[in-house]
Amino acid sequence: TNITIGQRISLTSENNTVQGVDRVSFNVNSFSSYSLSGDGGFSVSTLPQACGRLNESLTLTQNVGAGLLRVCFDFNTSGITLDCAGFNITGNATGTAINISNSPTFLSLGNITIKNCNIKNFSIGINISSAVNISLFNNNISNVTDGIWLNNTAGSVLENNSANATTGNGVRLDNSSNNTISNNNVSNGAAQNPNQGSILLV
User: Fold this and answer.
1) Do residues 66 and 97 touch, judged by C-beta distance below 8 A?
2) Which of 50, 144, 148, 186 has most Cβ atoms within 10 angstroms of its Cβ?
3) How far is residue 79's CA from residue 111's CA, in Å, rounded to a whole number?
């Protein structure tokens, strides 16, 4: 069984117990290969990938639910990629699916790519603040208050994304410049005032 960063594992034996010398644990701190053999009849199964802080690139292999977390995926370093590979990130109508903002390590995160994500049921789909050179490709964001929100962000590319906001903005840019927005399908389901719409520049 291949084990990747961000996955948890469970161990079962033929009699559904793991005890004594049969106890095994893995600490997966880097990309590597793990194997388990012996006479115990062990099988290894992967548990669902979970939300968390991203310190390196991640490719999803299944859908992820945020539950009541304030943020599902929170970037903590520059130069990495989140590839959802077409899988869903689902919330509970609150919080943020993906967040890029100041971190304890980097005052300004940059050179980050988010692609192929299906994001739904959040307050904010993707929040980007005080960052540079962020790339958003082929993401589908729906049933959110605000789809993509850029604040104090420059040099970023939004391409081939779909963002459907319910009451806020499909794409909102605050104090942001030199960003490229192309071939996106952006909409707002219930714009009621000048501060709400498909794309808002502030």
Assistant:
1) yes
2) 148
3) 5
Rounded Cα gap, residues 86 and 167, in angstroms = 25
What is the model's pTM? 0.73
**Quick one: which of 128, 135, 134, 146 has its CA closest to 190?**
146
C-alpha to C-alpha distances, 11 to 14, 62, 91, nearest whole angstrom:
10, 20, 29
Query: Can you list the positions of beta strands (E) in the chain?
Result: 9-12, 43-46, 52-54, 58-59, 64-65, 71-75, 81-83, 88-90, 96-100, 109-115, 118-129, 131-137, 140-151, 157-159, 162-165, 171-174, 180-182, 185-188, 199-201
Q: How far apart are CA 5 and CA 70, in angstroms?
A: 22
